[in-house]
Design goal:
Elements (H helix, E strand, L loop, with lengths): L1 H19 L5 E7 L4 E2 L6 E2 L3 E3 L2 E9 L10 E7 L7 E2 L3 E3 L5 E8 L3 E10 L8 E7 L2 H28 L5 H17 L12 H14 L11 H13 L3 H27 L3 H13 L1 H9 L3 H24 L8 H18 L17 H4 L2
Antiparallel strand pairs: 1-11, 2-3, 3-10, 4-10, 5-9, 5-11, 6-8, 6-10, 7-9
Helix pairs in contact: 1-2, 3-6, 3-7, 4-5, 5-6, 6-7, 6-9, 8-9
Length: 370
């Protein structure tokens, strides 16, 4: 009976959050160019202060080109005082002179009592005519709904697994295998804990392709990329930042790769420890790490894992034919270690996390989806 009440409470909470996630946006600040203030020391223009709560916000710029628009162009950003500026995640947007409509997305992680818009015009003088708005979007509510949904799913899954273990429906070996799989996956996801990721050329292309998916321009995307781009595209549609969307995709691909490797290797080997070690090496080896975290290329990571799965399966079958499941040849161990060492030596100067966190919140259209 207690379980039913808990599930009912979870369902009601999720229903409320789901309904709220489709509510309307709220305007928290609105002004035209005549209501802004010039800072003589810097030559910049600022708005009056306004408060922000945690959520996803959007700066909306509407200009009247016939009456001067935004002049020769400008840079605009959402700023706060030094004690709380880190709560605002986003980049300064560059607007050319012919801008009529522009939306710039910002993520606010904490309460900001005194935020303001800051504008740096490219030139002074001349007629201008534009309006600025800051609205709180429903993306923050959608993100909250997804987070709570995943949290409840994880807690309920753990409770069900624990109950099956206590009822002897799951053997002790399977229990530790599942725990080991989760541990291997969590170790593989450690690089995702940092606040930035390294981008290669392919990653920038993936960002553009994600935007093409959001706009329905699938013909501009290579067919092979559609196999995984739906994950970050879906996360961005919900409202997650670009960085978080790609981290979710990487975590999903790592978990799927681990499950695939374990499933294949468990068909050929009976020693669970050896199977787990082989599966772990499939997603821990430097080649996989480089393609996923340094090159930022999920497609090559998938190809690397599939190639490793095929090669590992062939080796395992050969070992079975020689009836040597319980005794591995030293030459095989030497070959595996040699491959690992060569990969580390080759990539030792490239596995470095060095990109700027703000890059992931860039105002470029293909990154913000605006």
């Amino acid at each position: 009976m207690k379980k039913k009440w808990i599930l009912l409470a979870e369902g009601l909470l999720l229903a409320v959050l789901f309904v709220l996630s489709f509510g309307g946006s709220d305007i928290v600040f609105e002004a035209d160019h005549q209501q802004l203030y010039r800072v003589e020391e810097t030559g910049g223009i600022v708005s009056k202060d306004f408060a922000l709560n945690p959520g996803v916000y959007r700066i909306i710029v509407e200009s009247d080109i016939a009456n001067g628009g935004i002049g020769s162009g400008m840079e605009i950003s959402l700023e706060a005082e030094e004690t709380t500026f880190r709560a605002i995640r986003g980049n300064r947007a560059t607007l050319p002179a012919d801008t009529e409509h522009k939306r710039i997305t910002y993520y606010v992680a904490d309460t900001v009592d005194a935020a303001h818009l800051q504008i740096q015009p490219f030139s002074e003088g001349g007629n201008v005519s534009y309006e600025l708005k800051v609205e709180k979007t429903t993306a923050g509510r959608r993100i909250l709904f997804v987070i709570v949904l995943v949290l409840f799913a994880c807690l309920d899954g753990i409770a069900i697994f624990r109950r099956k273990v206590l009822c002897k429906e799951v053997s002790g070996q399977k229990k530790w295998i599942n725990c080991a799989m989760v541990g291997i996956w969590m170790i593989a996801c450690i690089p995702l804990l940092v606040d930035y990721l390294v981008l290669g050329t392919d990653s920038v292309q993936c960002l553009r392709e994600t935007e093409y998916m959001l706009q329905g321009e699938w013909g501009r995307i290579p067919a092979a990329h559609l196999l995984y781009l739906w994950i970050p595209a879906g996360m961005r549609w919900i409202g997650f930042p670009v960085a978080t969307s790609y981290k979710i995709m990487i975590a999903f691909l790592s978990g799927a790769a681990l499950a695939l490797l374990y499933f294949l290797f468990s068909k050929w080997g009976k020693d669970a420890r050896l199977v787990l070690a082989a599966a772990a090496f499939g997603i821990w080896n430097p080649l996989a790490v480089k393609t996923l975290y340094v090159m930022g290329n999920p497609g090559k990571f998938v190809a690397c894992v599939l190639g490793y799965a095929v090669l590992g399966s062939v080796v395992w079958i050969l070992l079975q034919k020689r009836k040597s499941q319980n005794k591995i040849s030293p030459w095989i161990v030497f070959a595996v270690l040699l491959i690992l060492v060569l990969q580390v030596v080759y990539y030792e100067n490239t596995i470095i996390l060095q990109s700027d966190v703000q890059y992931w919140y860039n105002e470029e259209p293909f990154m913000t989806g605006e």
